[in-house]
Design brief:
The chain has 326 residues and is an alpha+beta fold. The protein folds into 3 domains: 12-81, no CATH class; 89-95 and 136-323, Alpha-Beta Complex (Fumarylacetoacetate hydrolase, domain 2), CATH 3.90.850; 99-135, no CATH class. Helix content is 23%, strand content 27%. It is built from 9 helices and 20 strands. Helix 4 crosses helix 5 (116-133).
Length: 326
């Protein structure tokens, strides 16, 4: 396992297990972990259960983080799992200005008479107008795609163009339905890192072009959403709209962009999703991928690749790609 990058703030949440042990919800303070299933009333079995009572539990977590008399154990030697098991995953598409411009240029028709510079300028104008006047574009993902931040990623044999998409993920802390933009940020318990892998070859249906995109096929293979390592409380993230999102492939920087480039920020995304769906504690709202995906570089994922993803203050994940064996 890679050297673990610790989060910002006095503490974070995570899901851990000892060798051959069952996963448990843990409070991370520096390089030590406290098992919350024994330290909190009602013995929460997982981090989602902690989030179910987030408002009343958060002050207790602050106090526990300063209590040296508890049964802390060293982080070293513990396995780090995805920090939370969501019931619902909402994924924002086309939410980074530069990323959308890159994709539109990459996928433009060979018959397009515009120069690359002309196409970029026109698409940029559309993005600016969209941010000011339009609504976010959001679809749903499967919790079964979630895997740990240091687990291997199995590339399915059918995935011809697997790609990376490192993203900021907001974690919901209380039920939210039809909340305003001004209210929305108050429903976010914290933030974590998600790599929303996508097979570019199956994004669009070849057999039914009129239907368009196939998000089930291209994004939801088991392990296609490495998550974590930590859930960092919102109070420790000064501005989710000003974080650096960086992904390295085999040591080379591919994505390195600020969340300032988002067209729709966390509050607008959470509010928009809540207009239709009822958000629940532990749910994830993925905020979209910045520029620098493999389709931009002309270099897609293959077995043996190592992805290292980090976001300011949220730690870092490291995943190795392996080929499907059966």
């Amino acid at each position: 396992m890679a050297t673990l990058a610790l989060p910002a703030g006095p503490f974070a949440l995570g899901t851990f297990s000892a060798p051959d042990g069952e996963p448990f919800p843990g409070l991370l303070v520096q390089e030590r972990v406290l098992d919350l299933s024994g330290a909190l009333d009602r013995s929460p079995s997982d981090v989602r259960a902690v989030l179910e009572r987030w408002e009343e539990t958060l002050p207790l977590l602050r106090a526990l983080a300063e209590d040296d008399g508890r049964g802390w154990r060293p982080l070293e030697g513990l396995r780090v799992h995805a920090p939370v098991e969501p019931r619902q995953i909402f994924q924002s598409g086309a939410n980074y200005r530069q990323h959308v411009i890159d994709l539109e240029v990459a996928h433009r028709s060979p018959d397009d008479p515009r120069t690359v510079e002309e196409a970029r300028a026109e698409i940029a104008a559309v993005m600016d107008r969209r941010a000011a006047e339009d609504l976010p574009y959001v679809f749903t993902g499967l919790p079964s795609a979630v895997t740990g931040p240091y687990d291997d990623v199995v590339l399915p044999s059918w995935a011809e163009k697997p790609d990376w998409e490192l993203e900021l993920a907001a974690v919901i802390g209380r039920p939210a339905h039809r909340v305003s933009v001004d209210e929305a940020i108050g429903y976010v318990a914290g933030y974590t890192i998600a790599n929303d892998l996508t097979d570019r070859a199956t994004v669009f249906r070849r057999d039914m072009k009129a239907i368009g995109t196939d998000w089930l096929r291209c994004k939801n293979a088991p392990g296609f959403t490495p998550l974590g390592p930590w859930l960092v409380p919102a109070e420790s993230v000064a501005d989710p709209g000003d974080l650096r999102v960086t992904l390295k492939l085999n040591g080379d920087t591919m994505q390195d962009e600020s969340t300032k480039d988002m067209l729709f920020g966390v509050a607008r995304l959470v509010s928009y999703v809540s207009r239709t769906a009822r958000l629940l504690p532990g749910d994830l709202v993925l905020t979209g991928s910045p520029a620098g995906n493999g389709i931009h570089w002309g270099r897609l994922l293959r077995a043996g690749d190592v992805m290292e993803g980090s976001i300011t203050g949220l730690g870092a994940q490291r995943t190795r790609c392996v080929g499907e064996t059966s």
